[in-house]
Structure formats: C-alpha cells, structure tokens
Design brief:
about 40% strand, L,D-transpeptidase catalytic domain-like, about 160 residues, 1 helix, mainly beta
Length: about 160
C-alpha cells in the first residue's frame, strides 16, 4: 500500500511506532503488482480471515493477546517467514510469519524486539482465546496455508 506524490512514494515502515510511514523516492524502488491477498484479524471475534480478490477464502478461529499484552491493531504486512517444521514442539507451531508490527507493551520478547507474528501452535486448545503475548496464533494447518502467501501480504488487525 502506498500513495504517490510526484516522484515520491508514501509507504508503511516496519518500525516502531506501529503504522509509521515515510516517503521514499520512486526511482529507488521497483513497485510490483498489487497483491491479490489480504488477511483480516478481528480481535473481538478472535477470527482470522483470508481474502483473495475481495472474496473470503476461509475464516478460522485465532488466539490473540491477553489484556496485559494485547495484540496491536493497525495495518501490517508479512516481513519474515520462518519455517519451523524441523523443530517440532515449539510454541510457534510449524511456521511463523513475522509482521511489520510490534507489541505496544513489550519492547523485547524471546530475544527479539517485540515484533508480532502470525504463527502456528503446539497447544491447539488455546485457539480462540486471549493467551498470547500479542501474536496471532492459528492451528498449524492454517499457518501452512498462510505460509504460501508472498512477502508484503497485508494483515489488517481490528
């Protein structure tokens, strides 16, 4: 997502604070085709929805952050895919997708900078509840479907 003014593009930045934007010279980047997919996460409904070309592909229950460490709202995008299939039993399931957003309550987590993610789980009984440190958890079969989407896929959390 971006706006353009003359030779400048207005873009989202993967930094704190969430929803930070900046202007970059259009000549410094190559802009690809618009993405076909979008993910929407409803915190109130504890649901993740995958949309392709405006049509819902599936809707699945999701675990979200606790009251103490809530999942931040805003417009984010895929930045860091992490295949965990060779590390069975991790709390992040079989795959994690780092997002451009960060926790509003944690400046660091598990050795990182408090970046949020959409990831699988080794505890499927928690799906649909507020139990995470701000990430969005889904069942492992769901995260594997989401893992095929390209970097930059927008994730709107409301």
């Amino acid at each position: 997502m971006f706006d353009q003014y003359q030779d400048w593009l207005h873009v989202y930045l993967p930094v704190r604070p969430n929803d930070a934007t900046g202007w970059i010279k259009a000549s410094d980047v190559t802009v690809g085709q618009p993405l076909d997919y979008q993910i929407k996460v409803s915190l109130a409904d504890k649901k993740l929805t995958l949309i392709k070309d405006g049509v819902v592909q599936f809707e699945e229950p999701a675990a979200i952050g606790t009251d103490e460490n809530p999942t931040p709202t805003g417009t984010f995008y895929y930045t860091d895919p992490l295949d965990l299939a060779t590390q069975p039993g991790t709390a992040y399931g079989v795959f994690a997708i780092g997002l451009s957003g960060h926790s509003n309550t944690l400046s660091e987590f598990a050795g990182g900078d408090g970046q949020i993610a959409v990831h699988g789980t080794n505890d499927p009984g928690t799906i649909g509840t507020p139990v995470s440190h701000g990430c969005v958890r889904v069942n492992n079969d769901v995260i594997m479907k989401l893992s095929t989407l390209p970097l930059g896929t927008p994730v709107v959390i409301t």
